[in-house]
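Q: Hi! First time asking for a complex rather than a single chain. Here are the components, and I think there are two in total. Is that enough to go on?
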Amino acid sequence: MMNQNLETLLEIQDLKAQRRDLAEAGEREVQEQVFGLSVDDAVRELDTKITEMEESLAPQIRARYKRVSARLPRVVAPVINGTCYGCFVAVPTASASDSERNAEIRSCENCGRFLYYVD
Amino acid sequence: MELREFLAEDAIQLDLKGESKDEILKELIGLLGVDEKSQGILFKMLKRRENLGSTGIGRGIAIPHCRSLVVNRLRLAFGRKKGGVDYKAIDDQTVNYFFLIVAPPLEVSNQYLPVLGRIAQFAKEADVPERLSALETPRAFLALLEEKGV
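A: Yes, that's all I need. Here is the structure of the assembled complex.
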């Protein structure tokens, strides 16, 4: 089972990545010309959704999220082969089994990002 | 860069079973071989993109796409649904051919947009829908990509 707050944090970050892409000229052109997307409307819709999801985080997690996001653009980092891909420092091996590593919120001791263990 | 670099034969399904947009998206995600939880997150992200506007670009082709942390490299899948499904495509026609693109939020070589562009370019070629319809094997699909130079 994945921690619900971690799942929300992941979604927020993925939505922010989507929003960031849409703001770039190349992506805007493709989205408008190939998909007929109204990019400005899409960005507004994403902003609303991101705010809504941020507000749905548990208060303690939200406070940590705000602290981390004030200094780092990405608040969740994948852990691949035992390395935090936010700061590229090794993280202690999770004691839980593979299927439960994301069941609780863990943070990188070096950079403070929330950690998501990728298989 | 060629599309087949990102596409394994087992990520090509020429006989999708889904009867709705959601079922097709889930089936396509299933081709990527990621775990169940990651599949759920990818489905949510793809749906969010579809809710902004359909990725059905017309002529029976759709390119659902998203970025997500649950993958650590760019992944592609291709699916064909005989008879097509209602996908709210730009031309209001049913969609038969689906190119799924999933990429991590950050990529060292930033291949996401070029891959999206290449698929869009491929999809615009006049004979592509007919050629996709005639495919008999996943290998033939890879050969078609190679022939078209994408």
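A: Chain A touches chain B at residues 2, 7, 10-11, 13-15, 17-18, 21, 26-27, 30, 34-38, 41-42, 45-46, 49, 74, 76, 78, 80, 102, 116, 118-119 (CB under 8 Å). Let me know if you'd like any chain examined more closely.
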